Structures are given as C-alpha cells and as structure tokens.
Amino acid sequence: MDSLNWKTDIDNDKEVPKINWTALQEFVINLRNSKSEKPTTRNCHIHEKYNLGGLHLARILEFDDGMKWIARIQLHKLTSELEKRLFHEISTLSILHEQTDVPVPEVYGYETNPDLIGRAFMIMQFIPGNTGTDFTSFRSKDIPPQFQAKFYHEMARIHASLTTSKAFDIPSPSNKDDVIESTGDYPRRIKEHRFDITVRNEGPFPLKHADFLHSNVIVDAEFNVLSIIDWEHAGTVPWERVEFPMFLYTLPPALDFPWRYDDDGKPLADDTRKLWEKREEYVRSVAEAEKEMASDDGLSSILGSIYYQNLSSCYTRALDDFTPDRSVGVPINKGNED
C-alpha cells in the first residue's frame, strides 16, 4: 500500500462528488458474501488513499481477511452515454478476463442506480501497482532505460494477443470511403488505391484499446506489466486503424514537413531516429509473439508498413477533427453536484 502514488486528502478534494461511503461498504459486504457458500464477511474498511483518473474515482476496499477490491466510481451524474460506457467496459473486461490472456482486472459487480451511493460504480479486482505515468511522464523516453526493452516486449505480446484473439471476432465494416471523404485530396494516393486499402475485408478484426498508453498500464516498480485498464472506448476496428502504442507515437512522414527527413526518408532529428529504432524493435517483439502464438503476421505487418501507418494516422486525425470530445463536463465541486 505504501508504494501506491495515490492521494490521501479526499475530504478537501473539490473534484470528488459527495458519496455515501457507508452504503458502499454495505454493498460490497453483501456482494462478497453472495459469492461465498459460507458468508463470513462482516466488515469492510475503505482506505484513505484514493486516485482520480479521467472521469473516475478509485477507492481501495479491504475486508476482514485482507482481501482487497477496488471501487471505481463515476465522477459525474449518470447519463445514458455514461451508462453505455459502463456496460461496454464491463462486457469488454469480462470477455478479456475469461477468454484471453490479456492481463485485466476482474469485475465483481456494479450498480447504476445513483440513489445507492450517489454515483454509478463498478467493483473490481485490486491490482497492487501504479500506472506507468505515475512513475514517468507521457513520453516514452521517460520510461527508465533499464526497463524499456522489457516493458516494450511485454506490451508487444499483449498487443498481439488483442489482435489475434477470436473472442472479439465481430464483423466490422470497411471504412475506406469514410477515410477518403474525410481526408479529401490528402493524400492523393488514397484515392488511387481506394479499392485495395482494406487488408482483410472478411475479418476477423482486431480489438483496439482507444488509449493504449502507459497511463492505462499498471506496473510494478520495475515496470513489469500487471494489468491494462480503462477499456470503455475499446472496440473492434479494421486492420488499417491499428497503430503503435501511444508511448511510441511519432508524426508520420506523410503528415510532416519533408525537410525533416534525409534523402532515404529517415528523420534528421536524433530523438525521432531513436524513436523509430524503438518502433522497429517493438515490431520485432510483436513478430516474436505472433510466432509463439502460432498466429499470422497481421499486427507486425501493419505496424511495419509506413503506408498503412500513414493511412491510420490520417483516419485518426480525421476522427479527432470531426468527432465530438469524449469528455462530459468539467470537474464537479461538492457544492454543485449537477
């Protein structure tokens, strides 16, 4: 518990809404007992430490026998959109936990009736670690150098598992016409190749984590990956939408100034060159994982293709331009809970 980089002064945190903590304790005690043939749980202690991330508040719940759970509580009053996200994340986590080897927390229960504690929430497995950005910033170069290779390799294996799992073998429409419409005349080659943009029209299609970044990766002090969190925006996508993890993001050459590259198309900036090298190593790790899983080279071939990475970046930027912001409001003060 001492190793968690969490906050402790929740009573004075204006971002935290009013919560009925006693009702939450009663809920989880009943939930724990309902999962046991011989109910013995009588007490639940809510730890002082808490964490705020995006649109949620996390509190640690500890029972008599030392078992710990997490309450993940929505910061805002429930809307139809927030309820949809909650159910989507619960379903995604359940499938990942039951049918894949992707490390995710198990979901034990949830409640959408805000009258119970004041907000909708879910109860999850406690993973004893911090997110990667609790140790670093969002930049890949700030991941401790001695742990980078191991961390990238573990993330590559998880990435490969997401794209090879049959648990999410759900048909997804080709978006090539949307890409063309949203990008207009840029790049011109998209229109020229509009009928061979899609790699696999027939599927299966990969599962994409919308924020595949180390802020959503729980690690220990040596950056061993313990769990991937925040799946509320995950979904199956065409292969052309698959990109590198965001900690390895760099602006594609097709979207950058040409004078930043040499005659061979390599970046002139030293930092960018090093990032390209890390990306190449990541692709090799993905290829190794695909071989170990006896799967095809779908992910490594997409990540290793400048053409498809340019296309994916164009599409992502188009979505950023034309899709409403995913946030639902500003932090709530206790005096104004609406």
From TrEMBL:
Origin: domain of life: Eukaryota
Database matches in InterPro entries: AGP_Transferase, Aminoglycoside_PTrfase, Kinase-like_dom_sf
One Pfam match: APH
Gene3D superfamilies assigned: Phosphorylase Kinase, domain 1
All residue ranges annotated as the Aminoglycoside phosphotransferase domain in the record: 67-236
Protein name: Pc21g14950 protein
